[in-house]
Amino acid sequence: MSLDPGALRSLARDLGVSTDFWGWDGTRKQVADTTLVRVLAALGHEVADDADVRRIRGDRARAAWAATLPRVVVLREDREESLAVHVVDGTPVDVEAILEDGSRRPLTQVEDFTAPYDLDGTRRGQASFRIPRGLPLGWHTIRAHTSEGAHECPLVVTPARITVQDGLGDRRAMGVQAQLYSVRSPRSWGIGDLADARDLAAILGVRHGADFLLINPLHASRPVPPMLPSPYLPVTRRFTSALYVRPEDVPEFRDLPEHARQRIAALRSEVSPANARADRLERDPVLASKMEALEEIFAAPRTPARQALFDAYRAREGRGLEDFALWCALDEHREELPDRTREELASPDSPAAQRARTELADRITFHAWVQWVLDEQLAAAQAGAREGGMRIGLMHDLAVGVTEVGADAWRLADVLARGVGVGAPADQYNQQGQNWHQPPWHPEALAAAGYRPWRDQLRTLLRHAGALRIDHVLGLFRLWWIPDGAPASEGTYVTYDHEAMIGVLALEAQRAGAIVVGEDLGTFEPWVRDYLTERGILGTSILWFENDAAGNPLPPEDYRRLCLASVNTHDLPPTAGYLAGDHVRLRHELGLLERDLDEEIAVDAAAQAKVLDAVRARGLLDEDADPREDVEATVIALHRYLAQTPSLLVGVSLVDCVGERRIQNQPGTDSEYPNWRVPLADQDGEVVTVDDIAASARTARLLAAVREAMDAT
Asked: How many CA atoms lie within 13 A of 276 on its CB side?
């Protein structure tokens, strides 16, 4: 039987799969039928012919009527909602909301004239109930009492908007953006860690009046080398990489016998010479040395109080932590396992996995302990930032997704889609598109899980955060799904219930007292930014990309207030390199351009000239200044221009503070460029440490200029 393209495309749209989209070049593009078929299969709907289309539609209608309650209800505190309840036609039903505190609120039934539905010979009727506005925020339960028994579903009441940022008042906040791993001190183990974050935040807060320190994602990697260098390709987004631990700061370190302390000192001495390297960071030896050091410290007895705190941490993080620790214990010897054993361990609920929980109990405890130690050091870093005068403190970063083979892909397999990867369609900076090879949330499975996996991840991340940046926040509305083996251009958008995704985010951020910043760059529908603003989520504005309708640089006064404004981003070179056109030449060398190099350079130079002319027009840069020669003066001028905006948060990249020129990450590449492996260095290529920043005149000049310009606005 044939497959009617019209029926296929209609079904795809009904299931939230886009059949066309607007490209970066302003043209509307149609999605191939083959892509739609493969994406629908990843959603669990195999479509080979018209009969499959009819079957899928029928099955979905039947499932909706067979369920007494919806999978989950997420609503805003300031809105009421009608709840549809399905029962045997003509039978009574009572519905109540059971709140977090145990109190009960009966729901009022309202008129519903929906016709009954014949479900296998049984007439199913629909009754509607009003969920009132004004319920307290939180994770509640709806319970329906019917002749068939009691039925429940989660009820999540979310804030109308996040209000944490209102606490900043009229005084806007200035902060610094840093790739933490690249910022070392003489006390580091070759990689910047949480102790360095604590010290850097204190220095920036006390010496320069900074209010926040935005750092790269600290998500966990494998517990053993080799590890992927990208902080945006973790094995889990919930827990933290041991790479960022400072072993000497673990309280039990002080009580170690001398031979153990000497052993740890020897481990550090093997990797600490890398602190002086300016060419490249090497994570694997650092991770291996730190894990050995942690083994020594873990073997030391804990006081009853310390053990109680560890027990409390394990209880709080629950099954998610235990599954992650089990995955780490298994991953330590994964290469040694026969294929059959790997297949038996394919699920954390498999009999083999249950046996492993007993057999590897000590290793599971060790990996859970490592996370507890990291949690304590995250708390210390945030405390140090606030003690240094930062009003916000650490701003953590949430990556888009996780690796295809990792802890989250294993323990959350039931809420992730298979057979596809997340990426991005072509844009002006990546004209071939991108495939990040990350399994996306399965929209329906996540809803069926009551959005708890999303909630649990957020709670852990927000526990020691003054703010959270959401990388590619547009992914909470839609994600670009690419069928396995297909090029990035042969994908399509799959939509999510943004009311639920954003609602859960708003609830957890409000409860944690954290500001939320969404990276809303790239291709998006115009209403999305308005929606994020309405919910109290700050956007992202990058100086080079902010243009008015005529394509001219946006005047400072026309910038959004609710946003984090900065001159650049980690996917662009530092300003010194950007002014020199390094990003264009690098993309040409790597074969990422579709236009001729000279044409691309000319286009980029013209765009830069427009921005620099706008800066000169404000009297911030001398008319005869050569941006490539007078780099520091140009960097200061660009930041002063940005400081004249009303933007609530203004971010200054640490690389611009010290004169670094090299890019940290070139999107669209893997091994072709040393992404995420560039240590912090100055304009002369000399390593810059945390301690150097405390005495850096260049850093002081830039941050003082930004602060003064913001105060004058």
From this structure: 4
Nearest Cα to Cα of residue 394 among 264, 517, 510: 517
What are the b/e assignments for 46-79, b being 16+ CB within 10 Å?
Answer: ebeeeebbeebeeeeeeeebeebbbebbbbbbee
For residue 272, the tally of other CB atoms under 10 A from its CB is 18
**Distance between CA 512 and CA 164 in Å, rounded?**
9
Nearest of 674, 679, 676, 629 to residue 654 by alpha carbon: 679
- Give pLDDT, residue 593: 81
DSSP 415: G
Written in H, E and C, the secondary structure of 135-157 is CCCEEEEEEEEECCEEEEEEEEE
Tokens 């214990």 belong to 329
Instruction: Give dist(CA 422, CA 42) in Å, integer.
Output: 12
Q: Which residues of the chain have pLDDT under 70?
A: 1, 428-431
Of the candidates 688, 705, 707, 176, the one whose C-alpha atom is nearest the C-alpha of residue 394 is 176
**111 CB neighbour count, 10 Å cutoff:** 6
CA end-to-end distance (rounded Å), the chain: 68
Determine the number of helices (DSSP H) and then strands (DSSP E) in the chain. Answer: 22, 23
Residues comprising the chain, all counted = 713
Per-state percent for the chain, helix, strand, coil, to nearest 5: 45, 20, 40
- Up-side HSE of residue 204: CA atoms within 13 Å toward CB? 36
63 CB contacts (<8 Å, ≥6 apart)? none
What distance in Å separates the CA atoms of residue 120 and residue 31, rounded to the nearest whole number? 37
- Mention every residue, 6+ apart, whose C-beta is less than 8 A from residue 3: 33, 47, 48, 49, 50, 52, 53
- Asked if residues 215 and 604 have their Cβ atoms less than 8 Å apart, the reply is no
DSSP state string for 163-230: -GGGGGTTS-EEEEEE-GGG---TTSSSS--HHHHHHHHHHHHHHH---EEEE---B---SSS---S-
The pLDDT of residue 627: 87
**Residue 658 and residue 693 in contact, taking contact as beta carbons nearer than 8 Å:** yes
CA 643 vs CA 578, 638, 650: distances in Å: 20, 9, 7
Cβ proximity of 709 and 209 under 8 Å: no
How far is residue 156's CA from residue 136's CA, in Å, rounded to a whole number?
A: 10
DSSP-derived 3-state class of residue 44: coil
Instruction: Using DSSP, state whether 281 is helix, strand or coil.
Output: coil
Nearest CA to 519 out of 552, 542, 496 is that of 542
**Cα 126 to Cα 62, 67, 75, 109, 152, distances in angstroms:** 13, 11, 21, 11, 16
275 touches 225 (CB < 8 A): no
Taking only the tens place, the pLDDT of each residue in 578-631 is: 999 988 888 888 888 878 888 888 989 999 999 999 999 999 999 988 888 899
Q: What is the separation of C-alpha 56 from the centre of its chain, rounded to a whole number of angstroms?
A: 33
DSSP classification of residue 432? T
How far is CA 391 from each of CA 162, 176, 206, 379, rounded to the nearest angstrom? 17, 13, 12, 15
Bridge partners, 388 (sequence order) = none
pLDDT digits (tens, 9 = 90+) for 535-582: 999 999 999 999 999 999 999 999 999 999 999 999 889 999 999 998
For residue 387 the two structure tokens come to 């003690």
Report how far residue 52's alpha carbon sits from residue 62's, in angstroms, rounded to the nearest whole number: 15
